[in-house]
Amino acid sequence: MAALAAAGGALPPSPALAVNATHSTVVGTNPVDWTPHALDGTVYRILQIGNRVYMAGSFTKVRNAAQTAQLAMPRLVAFDATTGRIDTTFRPVVNGTVKALAAAPDGRSLYLGGAFTTVNGVAAPRVARIDAATGARVAGFAPAALNNQVNDMRLVGDRLILGGAFQTVGGVTRRALAALNATTGAADASVNLRVEGPRKTSSGATAPVKIEALDVSADGRRIVFVGNFSSVAGVARHQLAVANLTATGATLSGWSTDRYQPQCAKTMPTYLRGVDISADGTWFVAVTTGAAFPGTLCDTASRFEFGAETGGKQPTWANYTGGDTLLSVAITGAAVYVGGHQRWLDNPLGRDSAGPGAVSRPGIGAINPTTGKALAWNPTKDRGVGTQELYATDRGLWVGSDTVTVAGEYHARVAFLPLP
Question: Signal peptide span per the entry (predicted)?
Answer without folding.
Answer: 1-18
